[in-house]
Amino acid sequence: MQLGEISLEVSNISSYIAGMKTNTFFSSLLLSSLVLSFTACTPRDVAVSNGVRSNIQKYQNKNRGGNSAQGSGDKFTLNTFTLAGVFAEKQIEALEIIKVAKGSTDAEKANFKVAAGEDKGDGMVIVQLDSVTTPIEYDGIEGTWSSKITKNLDVTVPNKEDVVGLSAKIAQRCVNSKTKASVPCKVETTADAVGKKGTFANMIESDYKLNVTAGDSENLVKVSLTSKGKFVGSKGSAADSTEMKITLEMVVDKASLATNQVVIVSSNMRAEYQNPSKDKMFFMTLSGANVTANMEPMCNNLIGKHAVAAGDKNKFTAAFDKSSITIEGKNWTKNIAACGKRPTVDVSRLHVY
């Protein structure tokens, strides 16, 4: 081979090698591009913060018809629909106390005992009304619950047939039945979930005043209740406490108070409770007319409707019957506890959304 031919052959080999490098570069570039494209389209597992999770749960609660007043899914919360039912049952509680004190219902079946009265000498008798604190186990809206009421009340009772003038407040003197030592008197309603450690709801009232006064006509009386205290609850973790206050005014058919079918001619309630951050108070109002309270002990219930407003904008109608509570137009109906084991005020419902 001549020198010129050798030079040409070397030149051709160099060109071929250069071409191979160029092709390899573009192949590598194409492969890198494809890898990046696939990587960009692959979903990432991103941790959801507690704040985002809370917002998602609130949105889901709203779409389910609920209106959670505080907290996240793993924290004890207050829901306006269930609060309406609990607050409405305070009407039954007030009527039950009146009927027990006047002897127009079976105190033993109602889980109360009435101590001997103290005659004040002015036509009034003060009796101490204590609840029987043996827990009652029942099937609630969600799961099985053990409920207990602790109510120590001094009740001033007219020493006559008329109910006007009756009043009740937290008792001044209480004694431990076992140790006989003096203990603070209480007004509490508690519910503990059976088989769920640390899951409970309590309504603890530090102030309780009930009064019966004359109505606008002889066949009517006015029943007023003011109460303040707190809700305390837990869903298995740390307990949360929420201050609350209730003001209730009822107009009641006087004659019906002696029967098990008490007619509530009209009622108006305002309830206040803390918001989640505990820096202000939410409020709820309930009003009803021509509502019947079936006052059979351990089987109490309301028959009728209440207009409810949770704040200025959230308004709905709560319909009550002998077996359920329905929020009209919201696809929300919950059964109440079975007759015979039904708490007067079922605070376990505070765990239902």
Mean pLDDT: 82
What's the overall geometry?
globular
State the major sheet: 16 strands, antiparallel
Q: Termini separation (Å)?
A: 96 Å
Low-confidence stretches: 2-72
- Total strands: 18
Count the helices. How many? 3
Question: From the alpha-carbon coordinates, what is the Rg to the nearest angstrom?
Answer: 34 Å
Computed structural class: alpha+beta
- Topology as a string of helices (H) and strands (E): HHHEEEEEEEEEEEEEEEEEE
Strand-residue proportion: 35-45%
* Helix fraction by DSSP (H/I, runs of at least 4): 10-25%
Question: What does this molecule look like?
Answer:
By secondary structure, the protein is of the alpha+beta class. It is built from three helices and 18 strands. It has helices at 3-41, 50-63, 80-102; strands at 112-114, 118-119, 124-131, 136-139, 144-158, 167-170, 174-175, 182-183, 187-193, 199-214, 220-235, 240-253, 261-274, 281-294, 301-310, 314-320, 324-327, 332-335. The strands form two sheets. It has a 16-stranded antiparallel β-sheet that branches. It has a two-stranded antiparallel sheet with strand order 7-8.
Secondary-structure blueprint:
Layout: H1 3-41, H2 50-63, H3 80-102, E1 112-114, E2 118-119, E3 124-131, E4 136-139, E5 144-158, E6 167-170, E7 174-175, E8 182-183, E9 187-193, E10 199-214, E11 220-235, E12 240-253, E13 261-274, E14 281-294, E15 301-310, E16 314-320, E17 324-327, E18 332-335
Antiparallel strand pairs: 1-3, 2-3, 3-5, 4-5, 5-6, 5-9, 6-10, 7-8, 9-10, 10-11, 11-12, 12-13, 13-14, 14-15, 15-16, 16-17, 17-18
